[in-house]
Amino acid sequence: MVTPHIALVTGASRGIGAAIAQRLAMDGHQVLTPGRSEMDLESNASIAAYLSSLNQPIDILINDAGINPIAALGDVSDRDIRDTLQINLIAPFRLIQAVSPGMKERHFGRIVNISSIWSMVSRPGRTSYTMSKAAINGMTRSLAVELASFNVLINAVAPGYVMTDLTRQNNPASELENIRKTIPLQRLAEPAEIANVVAFLCSDQNTYLTGQTILVDGGYTCL
Q1: What pLDDT digit, counting tens, does each position of 79-109 carry?
Q2: Cα 160–Cα 119–Cα 11 angle in degrees, nearest 5
Q3: Which CATH number belongs to the domain containing residue 129 in this structure?
Q4: CB of 204 within 8 A of CB of 29?
Q5: Which residue in 14, 33, 93, 175 has a CA-CA distance of 20 to 30 Å to 46?
């Protein structure tokens, strides 16, 4: 049995975010999925304006939106770092900062930050992205401690390789086959499998799990 709540999901236009929004809607929640024209995560003012326009409380927050500019160390620009940290870290922080007072007042809240396996391991060219996702994990732990007494549970989900349209676009079939061979389960995840984990964390069944970064990677980081 799921108690219906109002959920805000960023990055819901495609991939994992779309799967999460769909799953939460199937569970009976009212799901808000603002696009960039409604809430531009590059602008803290835009975030504040969107939230102030809402006339309903947010009980579930999913911070999924993110960018991953790939560049070797010598080519990483100030803008790469600034934009990645703003969208992947500061925007989620601002959203949590804005919705958590209402959650505390109602003594209920569920927050899930979408992290990445690249917060735990990394590859060449992922400096900005890995920095931002490692910071998301740390923020999750810190805020979990701060919000726990108000029954506001916050966790991070760190997907591995996921079979999204973007993954298919960026990798030829031969590269996808090479990736598959590096995963103990011998396949990439489907977006719905990530959404299932997120849905549990937001459900009435989760009453005690908070402050964790949950790796959903088919065993990739065990190697």
Answers
A1: 999 999 999 999 999 999 999 999 999 999 9
A2: 65
A3: 3.40.50.720
A4: no
A5: 14
Structure tokens at 129: 């992205």
Cβ atoms of residues 45 and 74 within 8 Å: no
* Structural domain total, the chain: 1
Identify whether 10 is part of a domain. Answer: yes
Indicate whether 186 belongs to any domain: no
- The span from the CA of 13 to the CA of 36, in Å, is 10
Q: What range does the domain containing 72 cover?
A: 6-163+191-217
User: Which pLDDT value is given to residue 165?
Assistant: 87
Angle between helix axes 127-147 and 91-106 (nearest 10 degrees) is 10
Is 171 inside a domain boundary? no
* Three state DSSP letters for 139-191: HHHHHHHHHHHHCEEEEEEEECCECCHHHHHHCCHHHHHHHHHCCCCCCCECH
Question: How far is Cα 207 from Cα 114, in angstroms, rounded to an integer?
Answer: 20
What pLDDT does 164 receive? 93
| Catalytic entry in 129, 161, 208, 220 | 129
Q: Which two tokens stand for residue 43?
A: 């602008």
Secondary structure class of 125 (helix, strand, coil): coil
Residues lower than pLDDT 70 in the chain: 1
Q: How does strand 60-63 pair with strand 152-159?
A: unpaired
| Residues 6 or more apart in contact with residue 80 via CB below 8 angstroms | 69, 71, 128
Residue 55's region, left for phi above 0, alpha for psi from -120 to 50, else beta, is alpha
Taking the mean position of all CA atoms in its chain, how far away is CA 53? 23
Catalytic-residue membership of 129:
yes
CA–CA gap between residue 131 and residue 77 (Å, rounded): 14
